[in-house]
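REQUEST ID: PR-0412
SUBMITTED BY: lab tech R.K.
PRIORITY: routine
TASK: structure prediction, single protein chain
INPUT:
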Amino acid sequence: MRLSRLLEKEWLVLSGLLIWTLFVFYSHLGIPLRGDEGMYAAIARRMVRTGEWLQLVYEGRPYVNKPPLHFWLMALSLVSWGPSEFAVRFPSATFGIGMVCLAYGSGRLLFDRRLGVIAAFITTTTLSAVWHAHQARFDVELAFWMNLGFFFFYLAYRGCERRFGYLCCAFLSMAVGVMLKGPVGAILPGVTALAFVAMTRRSRVCTEIPYLLVGLVIFLLITVPYYLGLGDAFNRHFFIGENLNRIVHASNSPFLYLVMIFTGFFPWSLFLPCAGLYLWRSRTRSLSEADMLLRVWSIGFFVLLSLPAGKAERFLVYLIPPFALLTARYWDYLFQHTDTLTSAERRLLRIAAFLLGLIGAFGVFVGPRLMQLRFLMPGDVWPIPLALLLGIGCMAVLYSACTCRPQAIFSSVTAVAVVMTIGLVQYFYPMLAKYESAKAIAYQVQAVVSDAPLVIYHPGRSLGEDILYYLDRPSPVPELQTPDEIYAAFEVGQQIFGLLSKSSFEELERRGDLPLKRLADHSYRQRDFVLVTNRARL
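STATUS: complete
OUTPUT:
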């Protein structure tokens, strides 16, 4: 009774949620960069050093795959926090917190405070949200602005004295999304918002056109000068080569996200079929405006995201706010209608809870071994208290599934989600820093190479943008593509070093006649490579 009274105090609940959110999104941002994080950080670092903020350059070559806004944010963070991994990831983590605030604010405005808190908490314990907010990429930032733009559209639609202001904010949010990553920043929120207006105001849809035209003018006044300033070469490559080809020519199935969503939104994704059944059974009821919005928001974003041929797991973060709200709405429905649930709803809820309990228990015993297949880390590094807590939580989920009481199931699922999130941010990230560190490898290479010339040979892909970032060479490192280029590079009169993929080095050894000395072997992110030098010069 005393606990329920404490939970009724809004300031206490929000303070706890804020502390938890800051802990989740800002913990261990300083681990070494991984993959293309290194490339993005190198571009931002060059901005700060040279003062050239418009033309992006990476390793001496113009970088035309993405517009500069994301790099501006990273560069400003580097200026504010100093040159560190924390500064590089700070913008992405901060916009992850922004998504939590958006989930809470929209849930409260659409329904009530309890649903807003549940939606915000689900966002903080969703695997995809936490994982990608700890990476220095575009996607969490874009997810925030697209979903904010759509919600501002709804606030303008509701009609009030601030209607025009909300509409301007909607188009401003879409403009920022387009400046971050191109047309997708406007397509997802814009098309979904128009679909909602057409479905709910069919007789008055034409009256919205003047407002939309004003917003469109604001949108164009921001985005057109921005992209014109980037030059014709950038725009041709970015809009045609990068965006159009990804929409048309990739080979992914349109149903790929139906599979990805269960790992990306784990553990809450196991209850999405339950939420789907709730949506299906409520289709014949008279829906409130908020429930209609939630359906259009979730389904619209998911369908539009599934249409392009190019797909990636990280794009699922665009769906987190509407799916967190949808899942929170389902749990809120269970709390209010516990005694009137149908046998099908109870059965599906029990199955979902059983699956979570079994998957969690399986993960306690097999999870470390499975991670060894993907990451270079020992299988006995997980702390026993964490494994015990996860096991106890899974047993609680299984027990609550037997009783089929929604409140008990939600409490036990919450406990499992909290333990898994703590394990991710407090144990898994430090293990990555210890056992899979591009920084450590780069420092070992730099200790040998010093200021001597260095080349990279890994045909078909980059050897490691993160390693190049930590090498921080004074001049670009040439990436050679053919054996003839390797022969020409190593037959010069001066000493030269090379980072070669192990398979490429073995192929060169079989060909012979190349004076190389193998200095060291390295393994990183399921890639083996060797450090070599021209043998005659040692």
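NOTES: The mean pLDDT is 86.
REVIEWED BY: pending
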